[in-house]
Every structure is written in C-alpha cells, then in structure tokens.
Prior knowledge:
By secondary structure, the chain is α/β, with parallel strands linked by helices. It has eight helices and 17 strands.
Amino acid sequence: MEKKKVMVGMSGGIDSSVTAYMLQKDGYEVEGCYLKLHDRTDGYHEKNIQYIEDVAKFLGIKYHILDLSDAFSKEVYDYFVDSYLEGTTPNPCVKCNRQIKFGKMLDFAKEQGASYLATGHYAKTDGKFFYEAEDKTKDQSYFLSQVDKEALPYMMFPLSKRKKEDIIEFAAKLDSAYKRITEKNESQEICFVETVYTDVVKRHANIDIPGKVLDEDGNEIGEHKGYMHYTIGKRRGFTVHGAHEPHFVTKLNPENNTIVVGKKQALEINEVKIENLNMFIDEKEFKCNVKLRYRAVSTACKVKLEENTGTIYLEEPAFGVAAGQLAVFYVGEKVIGSGWIKSAK
C-alpha cells in the first residue's frame, strides 16, 4: 500500500520540526514547506531555512520554499497597518491562518500530491470542527477559528495531545539538528514585528502627533502622544489632570486624534456586534461560551446571527473589548465558529 503524503508547514521552529519527525514515524511520506512571507533583512529567513535543511537531512525528506510575500503583504501586513490607522486592534495571525497557511499553502500541498497539510499548531481537529489542545497554556484553537471549513478535512495537528515542555525535552535528545533549535529563542508572536507594533506602523505614518484626552462627556482632561500608541484597555502613556484613580482607554478617534478614557467600570461591556462570520454550525441562535481575545477567560453568552453579522449578549460583563479583535464561540472544547468584533457596548 502506498504511503500517504503529508506536507508539513515548517517554520524552522521546534514544534513543526517535531511534527515532521512524528508523522514520518507514523509511516507517512513527509515533505516540508517553508513560507517566505516578508522581506526581513536581518537574516531571519536564512537562519530558519538552515534549521529546516538540517532537520530535512536528518529525516531524509525534501522541502520546498514557497514565496507568498505578495499575498501576505496584501492580506496580512497591509491589514495590520491599516487597522492601527483606523483605530482598531488587528489580529494578523488569524488572517494569516485563513488566507495564507490554510489557504494558499494548502493549495500548494494539494498541487504537490499531498493528502494532508500538517502544522505544529497546538489544537485538535476531527475534520469538521476545531477543538482546544490538551496543553491549555499553548492552545491555538482561537487563531484557527476563521479557517474555511472546507480546509478542515485536510488538516493534521500531531502535537494536539502533547505538552510544549515534553516536545522540547524530546527534541533535545533526538539529534543535534533538533537540539540546536531547542536552544534558540522562541519565535515572537507576530513574525514581522521585530520589536513592538508601533515600529512597524511608524514606517507608514507619523504616529507621534500629540492629541487631547477626553472624558466620556467629551471634556478635555489631558494629553496623549498620538492615538496609534494606544489600544482599548491601556492605562499608561497619557496624562489625566488631577486623576487619583487609574484611567483606561475606552475609545480611539482617528479622525481628530483624540482618545477617550474612563475608570475601570467604563470598560464594562455587555453586548458585542460582530461581522465576517465563519461558522461550523448552521444554527442562527444558540448559547455558548465566547472568548473576546486570545488570553481572555471565556464568558457565557447568547448569540443571534443574521446574514454575515451577529450580536453577542454576555451573561456577565467583559472588560476592554476591542473592535478588530475576534470573538470565538466554544461549546466545551469545541470551536463552533467566530466573527470579527465591530463594536461593543
């Protein structure tokens, strides 16, 4: 019987390198695929490709370098910069997973005759739904929830039942090609942000234009250093005259470069409007839990959906909900869908 071919999205990191090893051990024919997504000039790609080459040599597999930098620039990078300019908080990894990794890389895998595309994500799938990984501290189901459901039957996540520290320990003993990867720094959260997000936005706009801080009634109460430095819920980096209690950013107004601040209770949200839905169930009204940002604790809610929009009614208030982030619906560990946050009140 012919071995099934699996394309492994390899980043040069330990998770995807161990994924390739595990699949080969399970009897699959494995090939690697490195995505070149941006034009960093600090040796980023060269270093990653060297790690992949060493692992590929050890496993005796071939690997491809797929240059998707044009698509990435349009679909992910431009969106990232534009979101900050518009005063919303982007989530580039979610966009990248849908459009690039499980969009264009999956198409490439199929063209190469692969039956599956595997990655080092910590999540589970049964081909119809995503589920949280066993290692809740590393779970990435939130970031996968916008992936087109047509892609799910082709996806494999061999690390779904593993703990990150076990992967590192295992890899360090496997071979020098792997040990070297365990000794490098963990990759940062957003691959094209080398330091902080403002450094990226700075290349495209002057973000250091001081402006006024307003209270909820529109009165001027302080100064700030430029609205793009702030996200909803931030409590530092601006002045409020005569304030004795902490104040938090509740709203950004790009059109006149003002920010609105209030005390903690001003961040309280009970209702969230969403758009650009990606659902794995057909129901239009349901109860579930929702995560309103990646590290948030999930909150019980009722959801009503229209065509491509919906409203989330929270059973308990959430704090600091930002337009541009993703609302992900869970029933237990199962992801049943998601939508982008448009507004909250």
